[in-house]
Amino acid sequence: MKKLVAAALALLMVAGLAFAGGSKESKGGKLVGVAMPTQSSERWINDGANMKKQLEAKGYTVDLQYAEDDVQMQVSQLENLIAKGADCLVVAAIDSTALVNVLADAKSQGIPVIAYDRLLMETDAVSYYATFDNKGVGTAIAKYIEEAKGLKTAKAEGRSYTIEFFMGSPDDNNALFLYNGVMEVLQQYLDNGVLRCLTGRTSFDKTCILRWSQETAQQWCENYLAGFYANEKLDIACTAFDGFAYGVRSACEGAGYKVGVDWPLITGQDAELMATKNIISGYQTMSIYKDTRLLASKCVTMVEAVLKGSIPEINDRDQYFNGKLKVPSYLCTPVAVDKENFKSIIVDGGYYTAEQLGL
């Protein structure tokens, strides 16, 4: 009798293991782990939702994780995804250099890794990189300022403008690319006096804001306006992120600036819903529109490629060296949006509805 019971239990265990082993396939194909940095930004919420939707439409099972800007939490999430048997990992890192060990573990277990929007540094475990042209983002922001303020003719016409910079996080490789794009256009105007930075803070080290903190940007701007702009107005706030633009808006409102009177030109990035509303109302001048649906689709092709042993579409093989290798990349093109073109690009493109924008 004991032998019969043992045999029955053994059969049940085998059946259970077989069911567990096949559960990923039965639920929707291979398991793709998607690690996103935070839900504090609308942009990353949209990225995660688009990635999940598109992967599931292709038949994959998706485990989407947000680490809320906690590096150790992201490490733990990746460890758990590896332990669950993920077939591929898509990673938007909080700290681009902090995941070396856990990614080495993924590589040792044959799990391919796709870097999403933020390049994974100092690792040979990354297969591909999907992102927007980060230097191009900076260039687009700077060229907008150049055109809006007529900087090319300002010297001859005796015009100059004050400017302050609010750049991205020092642990995000994208931030330096963006800064370099900005300065490639604007440095000449800082050199010839057309642009005047009263704080003197123009280097990346002096303008980068850890973890892209809106609160830090607001505090900086409040300090700048109180300490350097008591007798002169700030004309341009060159910010690298819509969250920074919100902080600058709050600081300017607190200092008594008025839209339509002395409100500065304020730039941004991501064309978040609030930022687009601010553009409509005049509280923000422009933002960089980054269609996360497009970025997600390019990343999905990379996931499919590594899982099927094929090669996805790549348009850059040289620009993104991560300290270990040049990572094959696809760079999506950023687009500057303002009050004049947001409707044709954002609304007509189906990114936001007129109702969402209160139109």
Defining key terms:
single chain; alpha/beta; 6-stranded parallel sheet
Summarize the topology.
Layout: H1 2-21, H2 23-28, E1 31-36, H3 42-57, E2 61-66, H4 71-83, E3 88-91, H5 100-108, E4 113-116, E5 126-132, H6 134-148, H7 151-157, E6 161-166, H8 173-191, E7 195-196, H9 204-207, H10 214-227, E8 236-239, H11 242-254, E9 265-266, H12 273-281, E10 286-289, H13 292-308, E11 329-332, E12 335-338, H14 342-347
Parallel strand pairs: 1-2, 1-3, 3-4, 4-5, 5-11, 6-7, 6-8, 8-9
Antiparallel strand pairs: 10-12
Structural class by sheet pairing and helices: alpha/beta
Instruction: Describe the largest sheet.
Output: 6 strands, parallel
Largest beta sheet: what is the strand line-up? 2-1-3-4-5-11
The topology string of helices and strands comes to: HHEHEHEHEEHHEHEHHEHEHEHEEH
Report strand %: 5-15%
Mean pLDDT metric? 91
Shape: elongated
The termini sit apart by 76 Å
Q: State the helix count.
A: 14
Overall helicity? 40-55%
Tally of strands: 12
Low-confidence stretches: 1-27
Q: Cα-atom Rg, whole angstroms?
A: 24 Å
